[in-house]
Design a protein that fits this description.
By secondary structure, the chain is α+β, with helices and mostly antiparallel strands. The chain has helices spanning 2-17, 43-60; strands at residues 21-29, 32-41, 66-70.
Length: 71
């Protein structure tokens, strides 16, 4: 039983960290790229990060149509 404990713990640790990937948030305003930033995180956190960036581009942009997407 003790021999199985270490491999199981390693699998648990590797499984928890493997969810983090590198995503790119790209924001455009009226079709022109305004922002491109990378986020190495879980997909959910990267989506939230991208939504925050979308609001920043809206606040500081020229008032055009802003669209951000996660790649």
């Amino acid at each position: 039983m003790k021999k199985l404990l270490i491999p199981m713990a390693l699998l648990l640790i590797l499984g928890a960290t493997s969810c983090k990937k590198e995503y790119t948030c790209v924001c455009t305003e009226d079709g022109k790229e305004q922002l491109r930033q990378k986020a190495k995180d879980t997909k959910k956190n990267a989506e939230n990060y991208c939504k925050e960036r979308e609001q920043i581009v809206r606040d500081w942009g020229g008032g055009g149509f802003v669209k951000c997407s996660l790649l």
